[in-house]
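pinging the channel bc i need a second pair of eyes. not urgent but kinda urgent?? the chain im working w is below, pasted from the shared doc
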Amino acid sequence: MITKSQIKLKRVFDILLALVLIPIIIIPLIIFLILAALETRLSGLFKQDRVGQYGKIFKIYKIRTLKKGNHELGQLDTYAAPFGKFLRHYKLDELPQLFNVLFGDMSFVGPRPDIVGFADKLQGEDRIILKIKPGVTGPATLKYKDEEAILALQDDPENYNRTIIWVDKVEINKKYVKNWSFYLDLKYIVQSIF
């Protein structure tokens, strides 16, 4: 099980890596935000409530990729603007989350932060997932990197997400928290890049 000193080590690493990466990505990020705003005719920065460490709600930042409308789970790519599809494909829409990491809402590696109605409803041993900050990437994120495509194939994407994918993610994330190591975090970061 991850210890308090390991959580502190994780946080120091997150701050240092964020401080290295933000100056590198800041110019492309500004360009992407402007292009997203022009394409979607909305603010280029998308903010949404997510469940964080200890169940605390925070605002996650992303580059807006979807046009205005009612967005159904499993059909999000159909609502994406052309540049938005490019950003989503390469996960570049998640670049603003470096600021979530720097501000302390997220970590580079951990369970993905879910919308209200999932992680905040965890019971019993499953709640150990909330012991750590949610991550930009992680073992469940890597396994379900094509989650949108998987959901698009389902007759009832919402039900499939809740009963199959979410349940599996909880098990993967519990195992991550129980067996945390700095080496594993580095491994997941490298796997996410390549």
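so Residues 4-40 form the longest helix (37 residues). and Residues 4-193 form one domain. — does that match what u expected or am i reading it wrong
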